[in-house]
Amino acid sequence: MQYGYFDNKKREYVINRVDVPVSWTNYIGVNEMCGVLNHTAGGYLFYKSPEYHRITRFRPNGVPMDRPGHYVYVRDDDTGEYWSISWQPVGKPLDKARYECRHGLSYSRYICDYNGINAQQTLFIPIEDPVELWDVTLHNSSDRERHLSIFSYCEFSFHHIEMDNKNHQMSLYASGSSYQDGIIQYDLFYEEDGYQFFTSNFTPDGYDCVRDAFLGSYRTETNPLAVERGACSGSTEFGGNHCAVLHKKVSIQSGENARLLFMLGEQGYENAKVMRKKYSDEATVDRCFADLAKFWDDKLSRLQVNTPNEGMNTMLNIWTLYQSEINVMFSRFASFIEVGGRTGLGYRDTAQDAMTVPHSNPQKCRQRIIELLRGLVTQGYGLHLFQPEWFDPQEKKQSFKSPTVVPTPNKSQMIHGLEDTCADDALWLIAAIVEYIKETGEFSLLDETVTYADGGSGTVYEHMTKILDFSTEQVGANGICKGLRADWNDCLNLGGGESAMVSFLHYWALQYFIELACYVGKTEDAAKYGAIAKQIKAVSEKVLWDGKWYARGITAKGRKIGVQSDSEGRVHLESNAWAVLSGVAGKEHGELCMDSVNEYLYTPYGLMLVAPAYSTPDDDIGFVTRVYRGVKENGSVFSHSNPWAWAAEAKLGRGTRAMKFYDALCPYHQNNLIEIRQSEPYSYCQFIMGKDHTAHGRARHPFMTGSGGWSYFAATRFLLGIRPDFNHLMIDPCIPSHWQGFTAVRKWRGATYNITVQNPNGVEKGVKTVLLAGKTLEGGAVPCQPTGSVNDVTIIMG
Fold this sequence. Notes:
Keywords: Glycosyltransferase, Transferase
GO molecular function: carbohydrate binding; glycosyltransferase activity
Protein name: Chitobiose phosphorylase
Number of helices: 20
Distance between the termini: 42 Å
Radius of gyration: 28 Å
Number of strands: 43
Strand content: 25-35%
Shape: globular
CATH class of one domain: Mainly Beta
Helix content: 25-40%
InterPro entries: 6-hairpin_glycosidase_sf, 6hp_glycosidase-like_sf, Gal_mutarotase_sf_dom, GH65_N, GH94_catalytic, GH94_Enzymes, GH94N_ChBP, Glyco_hydrolase_94_b-supersand
GO biological process, one term: carbohydrate metabolic process
């Protein structure tokens, strides 16, 4: 079943059947203001923090689905009939009207054809100002003059998530609204600067600021009393729940158009006047929308591919990079699932996000790297979840005298012990730093001094050594790294046990560090950490190899898990993919363990995390055994881990299988299976129900998942094989044997590389010849070319 299609020319996903099973979301904003919107304009807006500075209210997991939102009502004043441009919340029968949603890059457009009126509402946030614009156009396609009333609607939040959901004896009497000269001002009285505004490019014919006055008693956004009667009541009040309603009457001749602009922004009346003047100019709005397109043009142009796989082209050229960027920009806590109920940076997630897109967003990746370095303690582990402003010496403290603002904790509250430490967190940062340097050439980063979370400071290079030393020290009785509170799998709580995945990650991080140390002349460090890596490899092979695959770990009581003798949890994806991806596994063991992954974990929707799923609680293994079978960590297709298997197969040179795994998870290929998938087909989701669940194939939790960044990283750097090094560009594809080749354009350090890969002999991996401007290069790598140059590179596989 299909609900929409990809419009690659416009870089939009078009939802032309709007009654999708679940919300299909999008993100607007690229700086400090962000909106999370669905296909019917439901959602919320926040400034800087989705938890502490929510602007519009949202009722998560509610009925009707995903309300309230940022709505525009259209009323026919001659008949009294009314509808909403975004279908919901009025919800006219779909056989009586045509509705469409176009999710684009940092904007969403809602289109409605009903009763002779074509209406469009475009929501976006200009790059230069924290103000959400509602660009509304109306076209009269009927044969008579139309008299319409247009009403805006959004509901204001109490700013803090907790305050929206409890303690109403205080919050209900500390929020107020007022109206002056076409501007609604919302005021949170206990915050010194707790203002938002809503205004427009016209003189309103009416307004309402009090939610209950606009909606009416025993009504919802579906049937507001003010819209029904065609007039607002001019309500304002100190206390209560507040909204932003501006009413405008318009008359449109047959065949003519009208355009209305609404503005929802930060601060109060004075700033609203400035923003109103600026964005009442239609040319300015059009320019800002064009600037947003240029912003994404620049990012997407850093790598564009043309392969025989149209799904891969669509995802890599547009949607997977977009999803990866959203994660880097806004971390993981602004969605319809997290709903801003917690904020800050998750250490492992942010490190991986920063690793994946330094080519398209080097500034933000660098910012995230520095923030994570500040969240590292001197012992060498990272704080699993923290607020970056706690450790930023330049951060200006908020001046709000408000119970909604959580004060900065003291160091004893911030720094937790080993019992609360996730063993893998900081290891991901090693790769992020090295990948950033390979992309930018900024070796000076290594000498930059950065503070530690528990006091003192050191260079970035010194921080890296502390991370590696920590994992070297934290080993169990068998010589495998301890799992501590958890490794990447938060539900696998081995306690005092040992984690195969952490040992493999440690080895992987060491390879990155040793390569860097050699390049910058730190030969003693390279030798020291090389010896550690050699020991890890030997111990891992001795302790963890189980004949056909690698064990997942060892419990605190000394029992291996993820082995052939297990009746449940026999094969785990993480340990086997990382054994190969890290380089610990040789060719024979690597092929055997990945064959086991294919045999036990493959489904048409991707690779399951573990099989068979656990059905008997076992606290020695962890909470994973208390999760429903086939859900999340207990045997679902957990998307984040799937790209590790693609990369592992590419390292083994098996391009056909790597692409098989890629295609199974790829949302594009599930566009016609929405009755099964349910979730949006342009975004990777956190997980898909596994074979042991009745809803096998159902996807959940889109956008805010590490599967976006890792899918992009694994597909571009391992399958297509295009990856920067310290002083050259490597192009070493691993592709299906039936591919005759592909082309790509990669921008790197100011130069452009037009890449043509030819596969005349139908191999899956191996480069026979590398040509730069028609001349054969020795060694196969393409040296860094001068800034501004355009370079033709030909790769002949064989």
